[in-house]
Specification:
Helix content: 25-40%
Structural class: alpha/beta
Number of helices: 10
Strand order of the largest sheet: 3-2-1-4-5-6
Radius of gyration: 20 Å
Distance between the termini: 38 Å
Number of strands: 8
Strand content: 15-25%
């Protein structure tokens, strides 16, 4: 299978330089990063922490002066570049790194052209931007992964309740049972992300979906050789009157 190519576009005004290594590590899981660009006013001391990272990580800085107060020129430059890259049709997807909801329409437009969009931003990122992406990753989660000696903790933000996640999984299992199909662990993961683009087990203090599901009371993991599927717990199904 041919490796996917991604364009990485970073909003320096809204993202700290401390996240660059976790960003590159995470995006490399999806494919090759063919464009690496970062946008900001490089004459400003606000972006000075980024300057050391640009050469080290081969990221091309795009200069945008703040022409008028209150107007975000960086947003405009990123949007123009993203559309130019989109029209060349030489990438399979984009990674938009920002904690700003101003890129929501851009993400929607890119997805309309059948390109995947991975969003990355801090906890404070507004929900419209998160939901517009195919997949949204919280930067604090990535940073904690880079600190192996530090115990994993749940990230404090307005994440989905575990009950809502479990309800969605139960619905998937019942639908598949109606069609005489097992519900694979991989299917559960991909469908949860389709339903909730910002779903990430790392937000709950786990690094594996299987470990996360073990704490649920109404579903269970069923192992058959190397295959792992998700099923309803028998006692819960009987109690609820679900006869499958």
């Amino acid at each position: 299978m041919e490796e996917q190519c991604y364009a990485l576009l970073i909003d320096a005004d809204n993202v700290s330089a401390k996240y660059i290594k976790p960003i590159l590590t995470e995006l490399s899981k999806y494919g090759v990063i063919t464009y690496k660009r970062i946008y900001g006013d490089w004459t400003s001391t606000h972006n000075s922490s980024w300057k050391d990272e640009l050469l080290t990580n081969s990221i091309m800085p795009v200069q945008q002066f703040s022409y008028t107060q209150g107007k975000n020129a960086t947003d405009s430059a990123m949007i123009i570049d993203a559309m130019d890259i989109l029209y060349t049709n030489d990438v399979d997807g984009f990674c938009i790194v920002s904690s700003d909801s101003d890129f929501t329409r851009l993400v929607t437009r890119i997805r309309e052209s059948a390109k995947m969009v991975i969003g990355m931003g801090e906890n404070k990122t507004p929900e419209p931007f998160r939901k517009a992406c195919d997949k949204f990753t919280i930067l604090e989660n990535l940073l904690s992964e880079q600190e192996p000696g530090k115990p994993k903790t749940e990230v404090a933000h307005d994440k989905l309740s575990k009950e809502k996640i479990e309800d969605a999984i139960i619905k998937m299992v019942i639908e598949n049972q109606d069609n005489n199909r097992a519900t694979g662990l991989g299917e559960v993961g991909s469908r949860l992300v389709s339903l909730y683009p910002d779903f990430d087990v790392r937000s709950y203090g786990y690094n594996m979906l299987s470990k996360f599901l073990e704490e649920f009371t109404r579903v269970q993991l069923v192992k058959n050789g190397s295959l792992v599927s998700v099923a309803l717990k028998e006692d819960w199904g009987m109690k609820e009157g679900i006869d499958r």
